[in-house]
Write a structure and sequence with these properties.
The chain is mainly alpha-helical. The chain is about 65% helix and about 0% strand. It has a domain of about 55 residues.
C-alpha cells in the first residue's frame, strides 16, 4: 500500500464537508442568539416607551375631560338639524348667507 488509501478519500472529504457544515451551523446559531438578544432589548425599550405614551395619553384625556364644554342645553340653542332645519336656521337668522 501506498501513502494514501484511495478507498478512504471519499470518507475524508465527507468528514471535512461535515466539519465545515458544523462550523457554519455554529456561526449561524451564534449570530441568531445575538440577534435575539438585540430584539429583546429593542422590545423592552419599545414597551417602556409605549407605557410612557400611555401615561401621557391618560393625562391628556383627563385634561381634555376637564376642559369639556357644558352639557347640551346649558348654552344658547344651536341650529336645528332636523329635516326642516334649514328653514328653522334661516328663520332664526343663523344662516351665513344674506337673502
Amino acid at each position: 500500500m501506498g501513502l494514501l488509501d484511495w478507498g478512504d478519500v471519499p470518507t475524508w472529504i465527507g468528514g471535512a464537508g461535515a466539519l465545515g457544515a458544523a462550523w457554519f451551523a455554529y456561526q449561524t446559531i451564534t449570530s441568531q442568539r445575538q440577534q435575539i438578544g438585540e430584539q429583546r432589548e429593542f422590545i423592552a425599550e419599545q414597551s417602556r416607551f409605549m407605557a410612557e405614551q400611555k401615561q401621557n395619553l391618560e393625562l391628556e384625556r383627563v385634561e381634555l375631560r376637564g376642559r369639556r364644554r357644558p352639557a347640551v342645553g346649558a348654552g344658547p340653542p344651536g341650529p336645528d338639524v332636523s329635516a326642516h332645519g334649514w328653514w328653522t336656521a334661516r328663520r332664526r337668522g343663523w344662516s351665513h348667507r344674506r337673502t
